[in-house]
Amino acid sequence: MIYRRQIRTAFNGYPSITEDVNGCLAESGVQEGYCCIMIPHSTAALAITSFWDPRGLDDLVDELGRNIPTRVSYRNQTSPYDASGHVKSVLLGSTAMLPIHNGKLVLGSSQGLVLMEFDGPRTRNYTIMIQAAD
Amino acid sequence: MKQNPKDNPICNQVYSLPDMIEEQVKLCFSPEQLEEILPVSACFDIRKVLITGCGDSLAVAGNMKPIIEKFCDVMSCKVLDPVTFTRYMSKGDIGIGEPNSPLVLSISAGGETSRVVEVLEKASELKAFPLVITNNANSSCAKKAKKSFIMKTPKMANDFPGLRSYLANMIGIISIACRLGLVRGVLQPEEPQIWQEAINTYVKSFGPEMARISDAMFSLAEEWKDFRRFDFIGDGVSLNSALFSQEKFYECTGSISCYNDSEDWCHIDYFMKNPETVGTIFYAYQDHPSYSRIKESIGSAAKIGRPVLVITDREDDFGEGVKVICLPQTPAGFEWLRPLMDYTPAALLAGYISALAERQYFNSFEAGTYLRIEDSKFFAPGTMTLKDSKIEYIL
Questions:
Q1: Hey, what's the torsion of the CAs at A57, A59, A63, A64, to 10 degrees?
Q2: Which CATH number is A82's domain given?
Q3: What pTM was estimated for this model as a whole?
Q4: Nearest CA in chain A to B31
Q5: A56 and chain B: CB distance < 8 Å anywhere?
Q6: Enclosing domain of residue B302
Q7: Are residues B52 and B137 located together in one domain of the fold?
Q8: Do residues B96 and B134 share a domain?
């Protein structure tokens, strides 16, 4: 089963999509299998990280900004946000493949799926594919 | 056989605007071209913007100043006539001191206007950022500028006096404002697309309305064709549409034409003799802060016997005897696009009056055929000096 979703992001936003993915999984009825999540954008990324303390996500955004700043010297001349966003997106990645066991995503108790926005605000898409094991 | 008065160069251009807009917008918003003329580093260098040009181009500049101010995060944006820039302003007045600033946006559709060449030479000499907006990549202006933004306006036969280039130059500056705003973080990444759609929607909305507007202007031209004096009144940014309309009336009809704001009109132009022979055209928009003053002035004009036309985009009661032409509205939030099209009724009126009264464009083109009179003194070298005026600037 494939589910296509849209979300409106904020500037440097990091909305959680965990609840939505869990909802799709419940709707699918799959108990054992795999879930693939894909973000089809080159200036956004998908991260698996803790959702308990939003300051940790602020740290992630800040550190990415410090290491890959929005400077003027990128060869990509679209805009500093766009150019640095491409680099950040590649480094973090834009897909995740998670096991499904007993009808749940196999994630740590503090782990969640977060869409990282590097060139927003924008409307972003993501795709969830759920595959039963047999 | 007499030429159909509705078939004339200026009216044909007005009719063509909704059809040309999509291509022009696409050309101007081309990321490749914008990135080439305004690299990211240059976008951040720019502290101040000066916009200049002659004739129609100065009206373009006035219309676009608020857009630069609103979206580009620059310290200031000024509109200057070229002579002020080249002969009256010192390096300090201009604000020289940092690389690539000020951005001197110079507009010349043909690219050969001496005063604009002069602006570009001085701006280069001062190490500012001279950028020309032109249709002529091989022109003197293009050669003098640090960067040339080539409009590539789709060509049509008899496109004079320039109307398509007027619209194209405004689109060019809007795309520059969009580029600066995007790079400097004022605009969101989706906004270039939203702006392009808003421009296309607004200009195209005139297509289905064109026959109505044109018929109204033709009827008015039949009433006003023998007038030799016209006043154009607009406040705020509409003053530039008033200026552009005045220019078209000079070019097409050779009549005395003035433009002013609604306050000064009451102080000065109000006193013109024989008011019943002065065509008086107001730009009146309800969202303008001075709308109440404009309405007072419209009332005054009507009461002293002026034949009055009001150009607006919302119906209102402007008083007895006042003719009103209501234009399509801009998309919500894009009121600043209004100057792209609100001059069109006045341009149509100029074209129809010229045709009905059998006047010559620029005193030099045969009425009806629009063929240039070969020995016209108005275009004689050394007499008409727009392109061969002495280049001179003071640093």
A1: 10
A2: 2.60.120.460
A3: 0.94
A4: A78
A5: no
A6: 210-359
A7: yes
A8: yes
Report yes or no: A126 and A39 within 8 Å, Cβ to Cβ: yes
Q: Is residue B310 part of a domain?
A: yes
Same domain, B190 and B302: no
CATH number at residue B219: 3.40.50.10490
Give tens-digit pLDDT for B95-141.
888 889 999 999 999 999 999 999 999 999 999 999 999 999 999 99
Domain that holds residue A35: 2-132
Nearest chain B alpha carbon to A82 = B189
**Separation of alpha carbons A79 and B184, rounded Å:** 8
CB-based contact, A72 to chain B, within 8 Å: yes
Write down the pLDDT at residue B96: 83
CA distance B23 to B200: 10
Q: Which residues touch B310 (CB under 8 Å, ≥6 apart)? A: B281, B282, B284, B298, B318, B322, B323, B324, B325
Q: Do B188 and A80 touch (CB under 8 A)?
A: no
Q: Alpha-carbon Rg of chain A, whole angstroms?
A: 16
Q: Which of B180, B204, B228 is the last residue of a domain?
A: B204
How many DSSP H helices and E strands does chain A contain?
Answer: 3, 7
The ipTM estimated for the assembled molecules is: 0.83
